[in-house]
Design goal:
Number of strands: 4
Number of helices: 7
Largest sheet: 4 strands, antiparallel
Strand order of the largest sheet: 2-1-3-4
Order of helices and strands: EEHEEHHHHHH
Strand content: 15-25%
Number of domains: 2
Bound molecules: adenosine-5'-diphosphate, magnesium ion
Helix content: 25-40%
Structural class: alpha+beta
Length: about 170
């Protein structure tokens, strides 16, 4: 059997707070295959975001994975080094944040931010990265992509910023 793309097994995440330990995620098990989509549904505070942050190593410093594992293409990514993880993150997995405007750099044009995401993982000339950024803006169906390349996040709607984040994730 081929391993799933992503598999969480009995994942536990605990935060240490002034009021003691908060078990935010208690035993999440799920698996996701290549090309599949999976939605996590639950009330506010039930641990959806913390689960995502645990997968992408973006947990707050007070948070720790206390049990379970997270396998990406069969490899337990809770045990790989920071530098190995950075090769994976952004290239093979990415996070699209809930508040895209806060996640984007307010003083850099969105086209440049997408090009930066590309060159963080692949060496290429700047023009080529910008050409790919333009293609990505087209792929996420932003109207007038040539013009939007030069736009700053505050010049775009929230939905458009979300598309820019999706372009960066792709
Ligand atoms: N940095 C933190 N310190 C302490 N508790 C936290 C922290 N981040 C999240 N939590 C707690 O973890 C639980 C799950 O939160 P979260 O994953 O954000 O919920 P959801 O995304 O499902 O709304 C909540 O009880 C929340 O208060
Ligand atoms: Mg959330």
């Amino acid at each position: 059997m081929t391993p799933s793309l992503l598999a969480l097994s009995d994942l536990h995440v605990t935060f240490s707070t002034r009021r003691g330990l908060v078990e935010a995620v208690r035993g999440v098990t799920l698996s996701l295959g290549e090309g599949e989509m999976l939605g996590l549904v639950g009330e506010s505070g039930s641990g959806k975001s913390v689960t995502g942050f645990a997968i992408t190593r973006l947990l707050d410093t007070a948070g720790r994975i206390t049990a379970g594992d997270i396998r990406f293409r069969g490899q337990d990514i809770t045990r790989i080094s920071g530098s190995d993880f950075r090769h994976l993150h952004g290239a093979a997995m990415a996070m699209i944040f809930q508040n895209p405007r806060a996640a984007l750099n307010p003083i850099r044009a969105v086209g440049d931010q997408i090009a930066d995401a590309i060159t963080a993982h692949k060496r290429m000339p700047r023009d080529q990265a910008r050409a790919q950024a333009l293609e990505l803006l087209r792929a996420v169906q932003i109207r007038d992509p040539e013009k939007r390349m030069a736009a700053y996040p505050h010049e775009l709607s929230g939905g458009m910023c979300q598309r820019v984040m999706i372009a960066m994730a792709i």
